[in-house]
Amino acid sequence: MESIKAVFWKPDPAAQMRKCNALIRANTRKLDRDITQLKTLDHKTRQYILQASKRSQRNPSQAKLAAQETRTFAKELIRIRKQSSRLATSKAQLQSVQMQVNEAFSVRKIEGSIKSSTGIMKDVNSLVRLPELTGTMRELSQELMKAGIIEEMVGDSLPDEELMEGEDEEAETEVDKVLGEILHGKLGKAKVDAGPVVQEPSEEEESLEEQEATLEQMRGRLEALKS
After folding, report:
1. Which of 7, 11, 149, 176 is deepest in the core (most CB within 10 A)?
2. For 16-49, what is each residue's pLDDT tens digit?
């Protein structure tokens, strides 16, 4: 009797839809948290660029070192913004998946059957490769496969150029653009060649060390968002 029931019994479509929506909402909340963290890093990095620029104006002997710092921070800011943009795109994709999934279940309710969707499969395949979402997106893909919305288990073996975006060294022109945006046209001062850097003991040295430590922490947090 149990074997016969197992053959003919099918999962409740309403329960399947609720579970799929719950997984999508969990992924959306995860992306929202990561995007918020990146906004915080964006703000802090902008402040470090401004501080380094002001320091070069107050102490010309530190101008070359400060210019190097502003460019380092600008590169970090570019990476932060690229990742933030990638996550925002992923969130839009996830919302699109939710609408398509709900539409598929609605059609099933009306017509009594469900058709697999290559569109959903493509979006899920893209999202499952995101380090931020891999676990829960795999679970979602399993539920969608059980419901017949996608035909096969989504894998992560395909190359994804978007995940590599931002890993290469940023072009100097892009760095200049960011510095021009933040320093409001004072880029010339940030690029001034002050000759050999003069190491002068001052109270600012502690601040520089603190900023370097903070920069390392920021890089760690940025990498953590990717893993």
Report:
1. 149
2. 889 999 999 999 999 999 999 999 999 999 999 9
